[in-house]
Amino acid sequence: MTVKALEHFWEYPISWKRVQLLPEDHQAAIAVLSFAVSEVNALSRLYIFNTHEMLGEEAIDCATSIQRFLILRTWSAKLFEMEEFLQLGGMKKVSRDAELLQLAGSALEDFGELRDPQVYPIVRDIRNEATSHYSFAAAKKNLKHVSPNANCNMYLHQMNGNSFYPMGEEVMFVGRMNRRGATLKEKSERAEQIKNWMNWNLAASNWLNRTHAKFVKNLILEKDEGKGARKRTYWIPPEFVGSKDERSAPIFFRNGLT
Fold first, then answer.
1. CA atoms within 13 A on the CB side of 241
2. Distance of CA 49 to CAs 71, 114, 200, Å?
3. How far apart are CA 229 and CA 223, in angstroms?
4. Above pLDDT 70, what percent of the chain?
5. What residues in the chain have per-residue pLDDT under 70?
6. Which of 20, 140, 161, 221 is deepest in the core (most CB within 10 A)?
7. How far apart are CA 37 and CA 40, in angstroms?
8. Contact at 8 Å (CB) between 177 and 194?
9. Would you state the pLDDT for residue 5?
10. What whole-number distance in Å separates Cα of residue 60 and Cα of residue 51?
11. pLDDT score recorded for residue 186
12. Torsion of Cα atoms, 13 then 17 then 21 then 25, to 10°
């Protein structure tokens, strides 16, 4: 008999019919926030499961870093997108709803605490130049900041998904970090910057979860008197659950057992 794992959730039932009672701007805002917070939470889980130890084998460590940093960059880019989304009453004036603008303004004020000058600029720049967009101009600027020992080898595999090309990471990511800091030449310095980046992502993710909760509370929950969440338990396959110490995301894909 296959042993299954237990997961517990608190479910608050909300019907689509109930959502449609909200003003259109409220519906749209809650939808985007729900979309964003679910993506960010999923990416944070994926990052945790991709924090493998470095083996000291350059090729394998490069593949590990590419996979890990892809998730880190995508995760932070989503958080920046939410900061921009909440400019609801900015130059474009996408909404004139007073309640919505008050909630958005409060969230942006809280986000101001995350604009750490040591981390925020580099996260923003890499989002603009190498995550959400690919910049030819940025690549040319980064070239002057690439280490002489940069790994520019190509690692080819019969399965395309296992192939990787570290030159891109060396120029677009490491080179851009060096261009911003000008002193991040040593691996230990870059490791500290990455640690700071991850901590920023965690803090910004907490901000997004709080923001989502505040919007939903003010726009829906406080208006639904006598309603509450109920605890639900789900039996799921054990491979669906992992601890942060398991590092269960593989770096390479294998077709079959050999």
1. 11
2. 11, 25, 18
3. 15
4. 93
5. 1-2, 89-92, 182-187, 247, 256-258
6. 221
7. 5
8. no
9. 83
10. 14
11. 65
12. 90
